[in-house]
Amino acid sequence: MQRVDRFRRITQVFLQKNIFQQLQQKQPVIFPTAATFRKLASNERLFSSSSQVKMSYGIVERGCPNSLEYRVFFSGPNGNTVSPFHDIPLFANTEKTVMNMVVEIPRWTNSKMEICKEEKMNPIKQDVKKGALRYVKNVFPHHGYIWNYGALPQTWEDPKHETPETKTLGDNDPLDVCEIGQKVHKRGAVIQVKVLGVMCLIDEGETDWKVLAIDVTDPLASDLNDIEDVEKHMPGFLKATYEWFKIYKIPDGKPENKFAFNGEAKNKEYAMKVVNECNKQWQQLIGKECDNHGIACENTSVASSPYKITPEDGKKIVETQPQLGAAKPVADEIDKWHYVKL
User: Fold this and answer.
1) pLDDT for 2-60, tens place per residue?
2) Facing residues of 152 across strands?
3) Residue 134, exposed/middle/buried by CB under 10 A (0-12, 13-18, 19+)?
4) What is the 3-state secondary structure (H, E, C) of 249-267?
5) b/e per residue, 144-157, with b = 16+ CB within 10 A?
6) How far apart are CA 153 and CA 319, in angstroms?
7) Cα(112)–Cα(124) distance, integer angstroms
8) What is the CA radius of gyration of the chain?
9) Which long-range contacts (CB under 8 A, 24 or more apart) does 310-313 make?
10) Average pLDDT, the chain
């Protein structure tokens, strides 16, 4: 369809310049110059061009994987240390229809990794409970996380903001994302996704949004544009997602999780409302317009932020960490199946 549109536009240009008439009358043909085509392409959208800005990010691992010291720091396109919370843009295109997502947990894995909001430059680290590293249990028939799990940068669920529909406050974290495509992404990957919908988990009395999205390069991406498309093309997946969040803490002795909206996934329009609200809340946070609630807001690229530091200072934060070492062994218990009866 895009090619047809392009040729239709080209035909329009030929008509505008009377080229077909010149050919019929066997007159010398004066073709538009390259500059003219470029101008017309700009004015008339003659050629389809992506406005998506894809920036490359790298990771710097420190400490030993599977240890309390393990950290994953981020570097930007220019090599400077960046915060995955604050420096990576939320929107990946000018139309604000594609988002950047920071992958914290690859699909099928169990380590509960997350952006550390309390440490400077917000590296990814493994969550700790009572001094021990956290792993999600394999609750039959699910193995680990059933999506690529991560966060939307430059979003924040303000713990003082009450969601009218739930009467609960934000959880003081960036927005969580479940990327439902077929590729297993690596920890620390920054991928481009489009939002399809959102679920609302009520986690220990706090609002905990779970944005549902798909990698824009996924084979199904063109078919998935709203939440109803997920059930159409991936039958059972929304039900499995609801079940996973409902039961995943039960093997740890906790009750099943509760949901707003009876567990229903809200549509794209509603989800984008949540995303934009949380982006505005982040802007207040990074602009020091509200209390930071213990969040480390250091960044190296947000020009208007009072928390901005120099690239040199960002590099020093990484250099204070121990060098990358060999991964520590993981207990066999991690692979155990757990069975839950509701």
Assistant:
1) 443 444 444 444 444 454 444 455 555 455 555 544 444 444 333 333 466 668 999 99
2) 175
3) middle
4) CHHHCCCCCEECHHHCCEC
5) bbbbbbbbbbbbbb
6) 24
7) 10
8) 24
9) 311/80, 311/81
10) 89
pLDDT digits (tens, 9 = 90+) for 292-317: 999 999 999 999 999 999 999 999 99
Quickly count: other Cβ atoms within 10 Å of residue 278's Cβ: 24
Question: pTM of the predicted model, to two decimals?
Answer: 0.84
Torsion of CA 6, 9, 14, 20, to 10 degrees: 80
Tell me the residue length of the chain.
342
3-class secondary-structure state, position 278: helix
Instruction: With CA atoms as reference, report the closest residue to 257 among 204, 306, 317.
Output: 204
- Give a three-class secondary structure readout of 122-160: CCEEECEECCEECECCEECCCCCCCCEEEEECCCCCCCC
Contact yes or no for 82/73 (Cβ under 8 A): no
